[in-house]
Write a structure and sequence with these properties.
The protein has about 220 residues and is α/β, with parallel strands linked by helices. It has helices spanning about 10-20, 40-60, 65-80, 145-155, 205-215, and strands at about 1-5, 20-25, 90-105, 110-125, 130-135, 165-170, 175-180, 185-195. It contains five helices and eight strands.
């Protein structure tokens, strides 16, 4: 029997139980988001100030849906990070399936049940078919923590498990990076969360991290 689960309905508890996923407590596990971060230019800062103002102005009328978040916030970030140019390219709405065999014990009858998680990745940054960065974009009033298990599911589905997987989850105003390594047991860690509701424009930090990942992975 096959049971299909939508990726947006997956929980951290499910991933921990079925995939042995666990969170690293080692501060050195995910240093890419804070170590050796390149500076951005004054011109880039001015552009990001405009992106922040654009988002907050548009938000005054109504919450932004996912496509609007991509257009107003995500697309400028990918452009400034250089992910639209060689050696990188992007793919959108990439279908993903991942499964584990689950045995259901029954005194009368033992039945093998295969659970398949299905979903579509919003944006993948690639280089030579390697998954470099998975981006999960949500509507502006979506609680970001709910997107983390979905992004981790896609990271577990990375077809090159020998390489670390990175992800960015955003809802337009909040941003968080993740790293996952498939070792004996898959392990992940989170960056700090960045938000547009602080006085400093934290899009500067988000772009810094994106550029650092691009430099590391290229």
């Amino acid at each position: 029997m096959i049971q299909v689960i939508q990726a947006q309905n997956v929980t951290l508890a499910y991933l921990k139980q079925k995939f042995a996923l666990h969170k690293s407590e080692d501060e050195q596990f995910f240093t890419e988001w804070f170590d050796y971060i390149p500076e951005i230019s004054e011109l880039e800062k001015q552009y990001l100030d405009r992106v922040k103002n654009n988002y907050l102005n548009v938000l005054e009328n109504a919450p932004l849906l996912e496509e609007a978040v991509k257009m107003v916030v995500l697309s400028p970030l990918l452009d400034l990070a250089g992910f639209y140019r060689h050696p990188f390219y992007i793919a959108t709405e990439e279908s993903v399936e991942i499964s584990e065999e689950i045995i259901i014990d029954n005194e009368v009858n033992a039945e093998d049940t295969k659970e398949i998680i299905k979903g579509k990745i919003d944006v993948i940054v690639l280089q030579d078919h390697l998954w470099l960065l998975i981006i999960e974009s949500k509507r502006s009033n979506f609680y970001l923590a709910k997107a983390i298990p979905q992004a981790l599911t896609y990271m577990l589905a990375n077809p090159q498990p020998e390489h670390p997987a990175y992800s960015l989850v955003i809802n337009g105003e909040d941003f968080q990076f993740m790293k996952l390594l498939k070792q004996d047991k898959p392990m992940y860690a989170l960056s700090d969360r960045f938000t547009l509701y602080r006085r400093e424009n934290e899009l500067y930090k988000v772009l810094n991290i994106l550029k650092n990942l691009g430099k590391i992975l290229s």
